[in-house]
TrEMBL record:
<dbReference type="GO" id="GO:0015949">
    <property type="term" value="P:nucleobase-containing small molecule interconversion"/>
</dbReference>
<dbReference type="InterPro" id="IPR003136">
    <property type="entry name" value="Cytidylate_kin"/>
</dbReference>
<keyword id="KW-0547">Nucleotide-binding</keyword>
<comment type="similarity">
    <text>Belongs to the cytidylate kinase family. Type 1 subfamily.</text>
</comment>
<dbReference type="InterPro" id="IPR011994">
    <property type="entry name" value="Cytidylate_kinase_dom"/>
</dbReference>
<dbReference type="GO" id="GO:0005524">
    <property type="term" value="F:ATP binding"/>
</dbReference>
<keyword id="KW-0963">Cytoplasm</keyword>
<keyword id="KW-0418">Kinase</keyword>
<dbReference type="Pfam" id="PF02224">
    <property type="entry name" value="Cytidylate_kin"/>
</dbReference>
<dbReference type="InterPro" id="IPR027417">
    <property type="entry name" value="P-loop_NTPase"/>
</dbReference>
<dbReference type="GO" id="GO:0006220">
    <property type="term" value="P:pyrimidine nucleotide metabolic process"/>
</dbReference>
<keyword id="KW-0808">Transferase</keyword>
<dbReference type="GO" id="GO:0005829">
    <property type="term" value="C:cytosol"/>
</dbReference>
<keyword id="KW-0067">ATP-binding</keyword>
<dbReference type="GO" id="GO:0036431">
    <property type="term" value="F:dCMP kinase activity"/>
</dbReference>
<feature type="binding site">
    <location>
        <begin position="11"/>
        <end position="19"/>
    </location>
    <ligand>
        <name>ATP</name>
    </ligand>
</feature>
<protein>
    <recommendedName>
        <fullName>Cytidylate kinase</fullName>
        <ecNumber>2.7.4.25</ecNumber>
    </recommendedName>
</protein>
Length: 222
């Protein structure tokens, strides 16, 4: 059976992994998995259902039966377009909370692995290289300072016409980092064999080039 090549790109919120993953997937002609969207959708679905995040069994049940579909660049939950709603800071913080629930992570594991299809997959998340695809041939871990990540997020939200506070964003990012890095299950850490790239002072083009170089070195036939 032919091995399906997988590239994992992990890192904290705002490190640029989503943009880099999309650019790299487009360049390679591979599929893409935005694993963070699944956790954001789980958090949103629980919220809409009135389920308390402390009720781990109920949240995990929601994760197992997410009524979600992806169409081009749109995301639908129960046939409602939630593409913008899941990209808010609130949705991100809620995703971080449900992602700390072991039963939720277990519920979403096989779903995420099912995205590995020919000709290849770029998997973007926080535990893609350590838990979901530990056998991936190429693993990247993107880093950036909290201040730089907050500035990027501030610009994104401002461009969308949202009213945001930079100091508040920095505090939220640092809090989320603390929660993600210290959770008991699948903490946010680089895989032992990951290439760590600090994107603080790099352009997206520079990071994409570094990632593509790593892919072509490990998979010369790509």
């Amino acid at each position: 059976m032919t091995e399906i090549p997988v590239l994992t790109i992990d890192g904290p919120s705002g490190s640029g992994k989503g943009t880099v993953a999309a650019r790299v997937a487009d360049s390679l002609g591979w599929h893409i998995l935005d694993s963070g969207a699944l956790y954001r959708l789980t958090g949103l679905a629980a919220l809409k259902a009135g389920v308390d995040y402390d009720d781990h069994a109920a949240v995990a049940e929601i994760a197992r039966h997410l009524p979600v579909r992806f169409e081009a660049d749109r995301v639908y939950l129960d046939d409602e377009d939630v593409s913008l709603e899941i990209r808010t800071e609130t949705a991100g913080n809620n995703a971080s909370r449900v992602a700390a629930i072991p039963e939720v992570r277990a519920a979403l594991l096989e779903w995420q692995r099912s995205y590995a299809r020919p000709p290849g997959l770029v998997a973007d998340g926080r535990d893609m290289g350590t838990v979901v695809f530990p056998g991936a041939r190429v693993k990247i871990f993107l880093e950036a300072s909290a201040g730089e990540r907050a500035r990027r997020r501030y610009k994104q939200l401002k461009d969308k016409g949202m009213d945001v506070n930079l100091a508040g964003l920095i505090a939220e990012i640092e809090e989320r980092d603390q929660r993600d890095r210290n959770r008991k299950v699948a903490p946010l850490v680089p895989a032992d064999d990951a290439l760590v790239i600090d994107s603080t002072s790099k352009t997206i083009d520079e990071v994409v080039d570094l990632v593509l170089q790593a892919v072509r070195k490990a998979l010369p036939h790509v």
